[in-house]
Amino acid sequence: MVFSFELLQEAVLFGVLLGCFYAAVSIGLSVSFGLLDVPHVAHPAIMVFGSYCTYLLGLYGFDPIVAGIVLMPAFFLLGVGVYRFYYEAFEKRGSEAGVRGIAFFFGLALIVEVGLILAFGVDQRTVEADYIGKSLSLGEMRIPLRMLVAFGVALVLMLALMLYLSKTFTGRAIKAVAQDEPALRLMGADPVRIKQWAFGIATGVSALAGALLIIIGPVEPGMDRVYIGRTFAVVVLAGLGSMTGTLAAGLILGISESIVLMHFGASWAPAVAFGLLLIVLGIRPQGLFGR
Amino acid sequence: MKFWVSAGLVFSLAVIAAATVKNEYYFFAGYTVLMFVVLATAWNILGGYAGYVNFGTPAFFGLGAYTAAVLFKATAAPLALQIVAAAAMSGLLGLVAGLLTLRLRGIFFAIATIALTVIMETLFINWRYAGGATGLQLLRPAPIWPFASYTTMLFVVMAAMAVGAVAVARYVETSWIGRGLRAIRDSEEAAECSGVPTLKLKVFACALSGALMGAAGAPMPMYLSFIEPASTFNLNYAIGALASPMIGGMTHYMGPVIGAILLSTLQQVVTVTISGEMNVMVVGVLLVVFVVAAPEGILGLFKRWKKPSST
């Protein structure tokens, strides 16, 4: 264990870049779980699926970010389909949906994960682009360019989603359905259609998040298991459904994880997200920016 | 009375099998099936009766396995002592985890239990004495008379634990504890208002369920002659423990037993005939199909089939 100011500085800088990325991978869950109350345990699995689609498009010469954007409409439709199914099978039947809804998404995550293993094997996959493998020197520090690119895209993605939710008509309707569903119904809007739309957007965003995931490092099918902890930690710490909170929580997780990584070693890092999550659940379950 | 007769019959069947069958593989596979019977039964005490989804099976199971392994390494304690110690440690973990997390509802509790698993795994990866990330080799002692081989002995021990676990679950289900837990599942507020000590019951269920899972994990290091964190705290145990009651039926103590026997036997067959990946796929698909199409599980289907007029 070495404590030094330079190391800490580097850890914080790296943590900010990582944190912004964590916020971007969690923002889809922030909509689907935070706003819509769907226990979407399969969110990270769908994101990893997005990474593999990016990898496939990369074989045809697509840049990973372009691939991520191209995939968004397809993932939107996938999300609409998944929500429709979930609604018909569970939400409509009311009660008892809790246990079975969670089990359903858990099963879905398994199917996606094993499907990827059967199709691609358990080996790690990477993509190629000009900005991958190079790094930028900043004084003493060297920052991998891929982290900077992921940071930039993550930031743009989040700003776009925040603007969408607060400025457009549908965006506001999504927030309204989270706050008071019967009231929305009285206004003549169909809550199910709005939720379906919102879930589609959340899933579409996951496609780009998946592209970012494969940009910052190699991807393997079992990766979703670690990200269940990270994404739920961010969303719960943020306070359900708060977009600003998601960014803040992502940064907190990124910085703490990178400090632990640099000072205690990689074997302790996976526990950071879950430890943070347990602390938040125990002390302040409504999160930092809770409604 | 009928229950005890059939329980005794099942156990004697296991003993007779141990005395007559010569092929070791059957005990090897049978052990896994019986282990999942214990895990699923234990899971159902909290998950099925009280409606709290627990993804933390590997945490309790793994702590039990490691307790046994460390105890064996330190003192060469006999198997029975290892099992008792493992159950005690995992029960304690259930008690503490229950006190900390059972105020949380639904998905929050579920996620907290995943967190528990990862934290336990990280602790054991970083604990040198227990082998760290590379694991620990253990030398099996000689089997105790009358058993010819250690695997056969473990099989009979696991059969005894399976019968014991089902008896415990049956007791919980038919006593006032089970009624209280069911009241919690249907409406926690209503239960609290009617004077059900909800938190106490939930913590008790969590500790009992944890202790049984720990006991199921205790013989694992001896079964493999080896222990290592990544496979010991594998989420696949959580999947098996959760899927079996969902498939078999969560409202009756026989549900998890039926589900576990069907599912793990199928998994063993698929692993041998197709591949290890395919066996996880089978669980995923069956879980989704049952949760969507047969919410009451196999027992529910059976009831509907017996009384077609009621549907």
What does this structure look like?
- Chain A is an all-alpha fold and 291 residues long.
- Chain A has a two-stranded antiparallel ribbon.
- In chain A, a hairpin with a 2-residue loop joins strand 1 and strand 2.
- In chain A, helix 2 packs across helix 9 and helix 9 packs across helix 10.
- The longest helix of chain A has 31 residues.
- Chain B is globular.
- With 311 residues, chain B is mostly helical.
- Chain B has a two-stranded antiparallel ribbon.
- The interface between A and B is large, with 38 and 42 residues.
Provide key terms for this protein:
heterodimer; A: 291 residues; mainly alpha; two-stranded antiparallel sheet; B: 311 residues; 15 helices; 2 strands
SSE arrangement:
The complex is a heterodimer of chains A (291) and B (311).
Chain A lengths: L4 H31 L7 H17 L4 H26 L7 H24 L14 E4 L2 E4 H23 L1 H11 L1 H6 L4 H26 L7 H15 L4 H22 L4 H15 L8
Antiparallel strand pairs in A: 1-2
Helix pairs in contact in A: 1-5, 1-8, 1-9, 1-10, 2-3, 2-4, 2-8, 2-9, 3-8, 5-6, 5-8, 6-8, 9-10, 9-11, 10-11
Chain B lengths: L1 H19 L3 H24 L9 H19 L3 H23 L4 H20 L10 E2 L12 H25 L1 H11 L1 H6 L4 H20 L2 H5 L1 E2 L1 H4 L2 H14 L5 H20 L2 H18 L3 H10 L5
Antiparallel strand pairs in B: 1-2
